[in-house]
Hints:
Elements: E1 12-16, H1 21-32, E2 36-41, H2 44-54, E3 58-61, H3 67-75, E4 81-86, H4 101-122, E5 126-137, H5 148-167, E6 172-178, H6 184-190, H7 194-204, H8 213-225, E7 232-236
Parallel strand pairs: 1-2, 1-4, 2-3, 4-5, 5-6, 6-7
Helix pairs in contact: 1-8, 3-4, 4-5
Amino acid sequence: xxxxxxxxxxxxxxxxxxxxxxxxxxxxxxxxxxxxxxxxxxxxxxxxxxxxxxxxxxxxxxxxxxxxxxxxxxxxxxxxxxxxxxxxxxxxxxxxxxxxxxxxxxxxxxxxxxxxxxxxxxxxxxxxxxxxxxxxxxxxxxxxxxxxxxxxxxxxxxxxxxxxxxxxxxxxxxxxxxxxxxxxxxxxxxxxxxxxxxxxxxxxxxxxxxxxxxxxxxxxxxxxxxxxxxxxxxxxxxxxxxxxx
Length: 245
C-alpha cells in the first residue's frame, strides 16, 4: 500500500474491533485511501479516542460476540457498506492440565461464531463485490503444548471462508492468518516477555524484523480492493511458521 488516496474513494469500511492494534491501523489506512470508516468496539472511551484519531464517520459500542447486538448494529446502518473487517477477540492458550473449560469453550466458538454472525447479519448490507474480512492465525498449524484451542480455530476459519464465499456471493469472504504482530494485544499476552520475543523474531524471521499492524493493514486494504479474491486465507507472519521454535 503506497498511500493511494483514491483507491477506496466513495466506499465505506466497517471495522469490528477497531479501537486498537490491527483494526485501528486498518481504519487509518482505509481513511487514507479515501474511505468512510465506521468503528465498533466494546470500550466506549477507547473507541471514541480511536474514532477521533482516524476521523471515523461513526462508532458503535457493543460486544461482537453478542448475536442480538451484532444483528442490531447491521440493521441500524443508514446505508449499505462495502467492506467489513473483524479483528475482535483474543486467543486462548493453555495446557490441557491447566485448562479452564469455560474459557476454552469460548475460545473454540467465539471466532467461528462471530464469523458466521457477521456473514448472516452483515452480508445483506454489503454491496456486491465488497468483502467480509476476518483475522485468523498461523500459530496453530504447529503442534505444541498449550496450542490445542488455537489449533482448532486455525483450522476452522479457512474452511468457513471457503464455504461462506459460495453461500453469500457476490459478497466476498477472506481470512488473514497472522503470526506474531506487535500490537497492544500481544503486549498484554506476553507481559514482561514481550521484548525478548521481539528480539527473537528479529534475529530468526526471514524478513529480519517484527511484523507490525501496518503490515497487516496493508494486506487488508489489498483484499478489499482486489475483487478477484474470495474464499481464501492469506498468511502474513514474516516466515514465522517456517522457523523452528
